[in-house]
Amino acid sequence: MHDELLHQVYEAVGADLYAYIERVCANDADADDLFQESFARLLGSDFAGDNVADSRRYLFRIATNLMRDRFRWSRRWGFTVLPELIGRAPESRYLDEIDAHRALATLKPRQRALLWLAYVEGMTHDEIAATVGVGSKSVRVLLSRARKEILNQLGEHLS
Amino acid sequence: MSRRSCPSPHELVKAIRNDTLGSDVQAHAESCPECGETLSLVSRLQAASQPSENMPSFESLRWNIRARAILDASRRRHHRATGPLRSFHLAAGLSLLAVVLFIMIAPFVAPNAFHGLVSVGPLPALVAAAMGTHLIALGRDRLHG
Ligand SMILES: [Zn+2]
Fold first, then answer.
1. pTM of this prediction?
2. Four-CA torsion B5, B6, B7, B10, nearest 10 degrees
3. Last residue of a domain, one of A78, A108, A139
4. How much is the ipTM here?
5. A123 vs B62: CB contact, 8 Å cut-off?
6. How far is the CA of A138 from the centre of ligand 1 (A)?
7. B58 and B23, same structural domain?
8. A153: helix, coil or strand?
């Protein structure tokens, strides 16, 4: 991949990818490292895509794999992490944003990833399945459970 | 309104992101609890979708990727250069291990024939020390490789 396309991909995907990694990892040091590693893999692999859309899909898949490996390594991918460990107070004045941060922080990393891909990235179930590496049917079940949990959390914050 | 007319969440997200949410969809969401819930969830999560200021700039990303590539190449070179040395240490360590095992087992298999060799005394200790050196060298190589 030449520099110009890399720049285009960074401009088009970078902020979305970084936000995704930040919210799922909830750890700045990891986010930087995983973000750079994802782009390094995009360049280093035999990925043959020559457009932004393909690169976007590839980057989200790589980043999800890297996060899953890292969380699996510490056995946290499918488990809830104590909210105080990851509920970094956002530097935001907006109540909605703080609510969403807090609500996400109470979920399992995999649930955060699923919700993000569905409701921020707007991926279809098949696209999410390919990104997260589980079957489409599992996505449906896992996503509906995650949705129920985050709505409960948001409801509590609202009341 | 019937469930059949509910837009899928990804259609809703795309419409919100592209600012093309039609008034018919908005009207539907107001009367459909599920779509209303989805819209509310999407807008909450979208509100949290700005990356922090820590996001690396393009320049810093590019330099980081180059530095990683250089580091990887140098690791590979080091690995290739020390490959034969590692093989030597491994072979030497394993043959010495075989000698030690032979010295330990032989007295049980053929006590009389082996009597002379065991009386050499410090030989097993020397062999064990040499083997240890080779295995430590191998371990250190692996650590730095
Ligand atoms: Zn509906």
1. 0.71
2. -150
3. A78
4. 0.79
5. no
6. 23
7. no
8. helix
